[in-house]
Amino acid sequence: MSKSPIDPPQTLPWVGDLPGHVLMIEQTKLPQFEELEVHDVPGMFDAILRLAVRGAPAIGVAAAFGVLLGAQQRLQADSQTALDATLADCAELARSRPTAVNLFWALDRMEKAARNAHSRGLAGLEYARHLQSEAMEIYEGDRRTCRLMGEAGAQFIESGMTLLTHCNAGALATAGMGTALAPIYTAHAQGKNLRVFADETRPLLQGSRITAWELDRAGIDVTVITDGMAAKVMQEGRVDAIFVGSDRIAANGDVCNKIGTYGLALAAQYHKVPFYVVAPLSTIDVSLPDGSGIPIEERDREEIAFGLGRQTVPTGVQVYNPAFDVTPAAWVTAIITEVAVLKNPDEAQIRAALAAG
Ligand code: MRU
Q1: Which residues face 128 on adjacent strands?
Q2: From the CB of 27, is ligand 1 less than 6 Å away?
Q3: Which of 89, 199, 227, 247 is catalytic?
Q4: Which of 53, 227, 249, 258 to mutate to test the pocket of ligand 1 (most atoms within 8 A of CB)?
Q5: pLDDT digits 0-9 by tens, 73-107
Q6: Residue 4 has what pLDDT?
Q7: Is 247 one of the catalytic residues?
Q8: Which of 54, 98, 216, 292 has the fewest CB atoms within 10 Å, i.e. the most exposed one?
């Protein structure tokens, strides 16, 4: 029985019918609340690249909406011209960010929908409607998936626990209530008393700017720590469990997530703190046997050298800025998906979950 309803912020709803647009929360500005209207493919590409929208499931939905924004601008085109342009839009949006596989998963679905519309001879508004229904299914599917992961994950949270999370795998990273934060929202709504440590998450501070914003908004007791403090709070015995999301999970269960996750998992392993990864099936990439093949995005020097509003690295000094790292499957207590909880995850369980999904 729920005590309080879950009312997550709406990260990227589609507004209007056709033509419509996407109304995003501009995440680079949080905790200052600003909105951003996105009307076309270049606008969506830019929003994903700049991290105005970010988080693996959210950028999948954003890419799907980007394809729809392109299609609705070509209502006069014949079926072949519309398909060619959609394929070009998919290729363009695929260049935005390399690591989160959800982006490619969503673009693949949109491409299939476009080919299907073309094979049926659809053009103009009918062609765009076909893509609209696929994009909306991706959006609604993500919302459903978040709810299911929330229910599955809440069983591991008992009243009185203190949890730790890294980066933002909450509502702002999805179309729904999040991945790693979904069990936390669900447990809170069930009346469980919780505390959360949110890692600041250098260099772009998704933990302190975004996770702390959305947990505080929901009335959940949240404390921000810098990334370097996580091991200390574990050493002090103050963390009962860790919940993180993922950008890509390889066939053997290796988990790619925001830079810093690997170190967190290492400390959790040492301190015997359960380490849960909450991710939808769309985050699993069985084409990669293990995490070594996951493409890791490297971002601009400026994010570190000028990240806090002033110069923080001497001019001319080199900076290395990988945005993600890979945690071995052996250190993951369980991967919580929308169809199953994979304890001590391995390839057999991952393939079974995909078959069930
Ligand atoms: O660079 P970001 O902010 O897109 O990175 C996001 C993360 O690493 C999240 O933890 C991950 O995408 C899971 S989100 C549900």
Answers
A1: none
A2: no
A3: 247
A4: 258
A5: 999 999 999 999 999 999 999 999 999 999 999 99
A6: 66
A7: yes
A8: 292
Of the residues 26, 242, 257, 277, which should be mutated to test ligand 1's pocket, given the most ligand atoms within 8 Å of the CB? Answer: 257
Task: Calculate how far, in angstroms, residue 206's C-alpha sits from the geometric centre of ligand 1.
Answer: 9
Tell me what pLDDT residue 77 has. 96
Label each residue of the chain as H, E or C: CCCCCCCCCCCCCEECCCCCEEEEECCCCCCCCCEEEECCHHHHHHHHHHCCCCCHHHHHHHHHHHHHHHHHCCCCCCHHHHHHHHHHHHHHHHCCCCCCHHHHHHHHHHHHHHHHHHHCCCCHHHHHHHHHHHHHHHHHHHHHHHHHHHHHHHCCCCCCCEEEECCCCEHHHCCCCECCHHHHHHHHHCCCCCEEEEECCCCCCHHHHHHHHHHHHCCCEEEEECHHHHHHHHHCCCCCEEEECCCEEECCCCEEEECCHHHHHHHHHHHCCCEEEECCHHHEECCCCCHHHCCCCECCCHHHHCCCCCCCCCCCCCCCCECEEEECHHHCCEEECCCCEEECCCHHHHHHHHHHC
- Paired tokens of 205: 């501070």
- Which atom of ligand 1 approaches the CA of 102 most closely? 12
Other residues' Cβ atoms within 10 Å of the Cβ of residue 147: 16
Q: Is the pTM of this model over 0.85?
A: yes
Q: Which atom of ligand 1 is nearest to the CA of 258?
A: 8
* Structural domains of the chain in order of their starting residue, each with its CATH number: 14-146 (1.20.120.420), 153-356 (3.40.50.10470)
